[in-house]
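Discussion board: Methods & Data

I've been asked by a reviewer to show the raw model output for two of the constructs in my manuscript, not just the figures. I'm not sure how much to include, so I'm pasting the format here to get opinions. Each protein appears as its amino acid sequence followed by a line of C-alpha cells. Is this the kind of thing reviewers expect to see in a supplement, or should I convert it first? Here is construct A:
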Amino acid sequence: MMRTRISRVAATLAAAGLLAGSVVTGFADAAPVFGSCPEGSVPAGSSAQCAVISVPMNHSEPDGPRIDLTVSRIAASGERHGVIFTNPGGPGADALGFWAQRAEVVPAELNAHYDRVAVQPRGLRWATPLRCASGTENAEGQQVSIGGGSRDAIKAACDAAQPGYLDTITTENTARDMDAVRAALGIDRISYLGTSYGTYLGAVYASLFPDRVDRMVLDSNVHPDWVWTEEFAQQQAAGKQRLDDLFAWIAEHNGDYRLGDTALRVYQNWVRLVSAQGGGWYANLTPPPASVADLPGELPEPLAELARDGFNGTVEQGGKLQNLVRTLISGGGSAQVPLVGATAVATYTRSFWPTFARAMSDANADPANVQRLLAIEGATATDPTGRFVFSAITCNENAVPGRPELLGAAIGTIASGGNAMDARADLVRAGLSCGSWRPVAEPVPLSGAALRTKPLLLQSRYDALTQYEGGPAMARALQGSLITVEGGDHGTFGRGNPTVDDAVLTYLRTGQVTVSHAEQAPLPTR
C-alpha cells in the first residue's frame, strides 16, 4: 500500500483497489503529487519519492478504462540540466528502485544535474499488475501459466479479472505510458537511459515521439531484427563464449581458488559440482577446447517423452515443452541448481567473477556450503509478475516465426551429450516459448531520422545476454553513434569504467560522442 500523500483522484483510485490490480474507467487526469514510495520498491533511506499516475489502458481509447503506474523521482542535488528517464530491462524488470539502487555507482555529475525518473512498466506490481487467475485459484492468488498452453484459455483467465488488459501489454503501449508520464509531469523533452530490453523500449519511444527526446543512451542493445525468438536463441551462443572466458579467468587465479590451472580443468570441476547438485544435463556444455560427446546425455522431461512418443501437438505436451523453454531462457526455475543459477549471473556481470570463484571454491571444499552461490543467484531475482509481463510482451509482439522442425535437432544434441546451449537455442527457435500464442501487435518500425540529437549506444563485445551484433544493428536503425566496450558486461554505464562514464556525461552535456571504443571495466579490488 502506498504510504504517501496523493491527489484526490489517486486516493480514489487506491480506495477502489486499483493498486491491487483492478482496471477502472472515467477518471480525469490530475497533477501528480509525490510522496513516499511503496514498501520494498526503493532502498530504505533513499531520497526517491513516488507518485501514482493514471494512463489509458488502451492508448487508442483515451476515454476508456485506465490503469495506474507508480513513478519514482530523485531530484537533482545541484543546478538542474534536465530530466532523465530509465528502464532497466526484462521485459518484466522492476524500474522504481533503479536510480536509488545506483546512486553510489553512477557519476556524481549525473546525480547533481539531472532529475532521475523511473516509470514502473504496466503489468508489474505497483503498476496495475496483470492478473490471470485460474479456475482453481488458491488463497495466495495462484495464476495460470501465462506463457504456456492455449492462448484462448490464458486470455479467458486474464479477461475474467481485467477485460482486454492482456492484449495491451506491449512495448508500444509501455512507451506510450512513458510519454503520458512525461506529459503529466509537465516536461517538454526527456533524456533516457535504457539497458537491455530498455534499449528496445527507448528505440520505440524515440520512433514514436522523436520531438520529445533530448538525449538517449542505449546500453546493451536488443537486435531490432531479432524480436523476440532469435534474440533469445542468440543468447545461448553468447553465453557459452562468456562461460569460457569465466573459466579461463578462474584458471589464471588458481592460486586463490584452487579450482584448476587451465580452463578445461575448471570446467571439469564445474561439471562435477553441477552433477553432484543434481544439475543433470545442464552440465553438458562443450568445454574449452575439448568435446564432450562421451558425457552422459540424460534427457529432461518432457524431451524424453518427445523422443519416445514423438510430437503429438497436444496442449498438454506443448505446455510441458514451453515450461522447459522458459526455464532455459530465464536462467532460473526449479530445474536448476545453485551453481548453475550463480553461473548464469556471473557470465553477464564480470564484477561477480571473484565472488563467484570464491563461492565455487567453497562448494568444492564442502558441497553443502552453497550460501554464496545462492546469494549470487538471488541478486537478479524478480517478482513473479515479471515473468507474466515477459511472456505477455514477447508473445504479443513476437515477429520471428517458430521452426518446429528444430525439435529433433535439440533432442539429438542433448541425447548425445552435446552442448546444452546449442540445444537450448534450437528449442527456442522451434517456437516453443509462445506455442499457440500468436502475436496481436506488430513491432513499431524503428527510426532515428527525426531525432534532434542522435542517440549514443554502448555495447560490450562479448555480452552474454544481448549479442554484440545488436549494438551495430540498433545504431544503424536509429542513426546513432556506437561505442564498443571490450569484455562482456551486460550494462556498461555506472560500472566504474571512466572511459564509458565520461563519454556518457559528455554526450548528455553536449550531444557529442568523442570515442568509439573503451576497454572493459576494471574488476573490483578483491
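Construct B, same format:
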Amino acid sequence: MRSPVLPLTWHLTRASGRRGLQSQLLAAGAAAVGAFVMLVMIAATVGADVRADRTAWRTPEPARHGTAVQALATTYVRGEHLTVVSLAQLPGRAATPAPPGLDTFPKQGEVDVSPALAELLRKLPAGQLADRFPAVTSYGRLGEAGLASPDELVAVVGRAPSDPALSATAATGASYFDQDQAARAVVSGYSGTRQSLFTYGDQGAALLGVVLLAMPVVVLSSAAGRLGAARREQRLAALRLAGATPRQILGMTALEASAVGGAGALTGAVAYVAALPALAEVPYGIGTWYPEQLWVGLPWLAAVVLAVTALITVSAVSTLRQVVSSPLGVAQQANPRRTTMLRLVLFLAALTYIMRTTGGGDLKARDYVVLLLMFYGTFWLVGPWVVDRLGRIAARFARRPATLLAARRLSDDPRGAWRTVSGLVLAGFAAGFFSVSMLGTDGSQYRDQVAVITANASDARHAAAEARTLLDRAHVEARISVVPADDYDSLLGGSPGIVARVAGGPARLDTAVTALSSVGSGHPPYTQEYATAGDRSIVARIADVSTATLALSFVLATASAGLTAAANVLDRRRVYGLLRLAGTPLRVLDRARTRETVLPLVVLAGGTLATGVYGSYKFNKALGASLDVSGVLELGVCVLVGALAMFAAISGSRPLLRKVTADPAQAPD
C-alpha cells in the first residue's frame, strides 16, 4: 500500500499559506548561511595546507648524490619578509631539474622573481631593494607553481658554488634567529617537506576557527529547524488525534525539514562556489589566495550540505516529542516545558572535569578541541535551566506588566527563550578569550637596528670600518658598534659582528640593509623583524583567526536571534492576539519581548565572557605570558556590538508583531 506521508506533506506545505512560506524561506536562508560559513572556514583550512606544501621545496633536503647547492635565506623590506632561494649547479654532476615555477635551472647571475616582488622592484629605488641581488638587465618570472600566494615576495637566484651566500656559515647556524629562516644543503631535486615558517601554522589556526564556529552554526541550524515549531506542533497534534501514527508524524516533519534544509544548504554551497574569486582576495597569513587553493572538493561540499540538512532535520523532529506522546496536551497548549536540576548537576560535573584536565597540562591539540566542544555542550545543557530559574525569580519580583509577561515566557518555554540568545552567549566565550590573549615577543629594543654577522671578532672590526664607508656613500646616518660574541642581549643573539643604529625611518633602514649586503660572512644583514619572525607569525595567525571568528560568530548569532525572534512572533500570534483583545498595548508586548531576551543574555553571556577571560589567563600562564590589558577595550567593543546586534535582530521582527496583532478582533489563529 502506498504511504500517504509524501502527498500529505506536500498538501500541508502548500496549504500553510504565506506565513508557512515565510518560515520555510527563513529556514532555508539560515541553512544557506550556515553552510556558506562552514565551507569558507573549511576552505581556509584546506587552502592553508596547500599553501604550506607549496613552500616546502624552498627548504633544501640533503641528497646522497647531490647535483646542486641550494640555500634558503630570508630578508625583509618594508617590514615584509622576502624569501631568497640561491641555487648553484655543481660542476661535473648531472643536470639538476628546474625548481617549481621555472622552466629551466637558473644560470649563474640570473634572478627570477615573483610577480609581487617584480612590482615592488619597480616601485622602490634600487638602493633600497634591487641592489641586494646580482645586477641583471631583466628579471625572470617565477610562476604560480613555486608560490603559495600571489602576494609572496620570492626570488630565485643563480649563483656560483663558491658564492659566499651558499657557504655553510652564511646559510645556517650563524645566528640564533636563523631557525626556519635559513638553510643549506647539497640537493638533487626539491623534495623538501619542511614547510615555511610563515605558512606552517596557518592550518592549525584555521582549524581552531572551524571548531569555534561549529557551535554557532549548530545554533543557527537548530533555530532554522524550529522555525514555525508551534504551528507545526498544533497542526501535527490535530493529525495525531485524527489517527495519524507517530511514524507518519515523524516522517512528515523529517521530509519537510530535510527538503527545506537541503535546498538552503545547497544554495549556500552554490554561493560558496560562486564567491571563490572574491574569497581569494581576502588576505590571510602571507597574503591572498589562488582561487583553486580554496576549493574544498566535492566530498567536503557534500558533507557540509548533508550535515547542515541533518542538523535542521534533527532539530525539527526533536520538537515532536510532546506531539507523539501527548497530542491532546499540545493541542490545548497545556504542557509547560520545565527543566530539571539534573542539567545543573551535569554542568557542574563536566565543568569540574574540564578544569581538572586543563590544570594538569601536557594536552595535545586534539584534547583541547574535545574539551572545547565539551565546554560548549555543557553551556548548551545548562542554558535552559538558568533561563527557567530566571523566569521564576523575575516573576516573583516583577513590578511592571512587561516584566511579568517576559518572566512568564521564560518559565513557560525556557528552551525557546534560550535558543534566542544561545548564539551570542556562546560567542561571548570567543570574545572573552581572544580579546585578551594576544601574545608575542617585544622586539622594540631592536628597533631601527641592522645586524651584520662576521666570522670572528677581528673581522667585525674590519666590517665596522667598511660599513661606515658604505652607509656614508648611501647617505644613511647610522651609529656603528662592534658587538662581542657573548652578548646574547643584542640583535646578533650571541654571534660576532656589528650593529648599525639607523636614523630616518623604514626607507633608510631598507637602504642600510641593502648597502650592507656585501659586508660580513655572507649571511644577509637583518633587522628586528628577522629576530621576532617566529612569534610574530603565530600572533598574526591568531589575530587573523580571532577577528574572523568573532565577526562570523556575531553574524551567525545575530542571524539566529533574528530568526528565532521572527519565529516566536509567528508561533505565538494566538497569544499576542488574545493579549491585544484583553487590552494590552503593543508597546508593552514589544518591551516584554526585549526583556525576555535581555535577562538571560546578561546573566549567561556574562558567564561565558568571564569563562573566556579565565581560559585566556590559563592559556597565557601556560605559555609564560601575561594578559593583554589593552584587549579590555576590544572586549568592551565586542560586548557593545553584540548587544546592539541582538537588539537590532529583535527590532527586525517588530513590524511582524504589529502585523499579526493589527486586527485583534479576528480569530487569532
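Answer (T.O., handling editor elsewhere):
This is acceptable in a supplement if you add a one-line summary per construct. For B, something like: The beta strands are 68-77, 80-89, 111-113, 140-141, 154-158, 183-187, 449-453, 478-483, 497-502.
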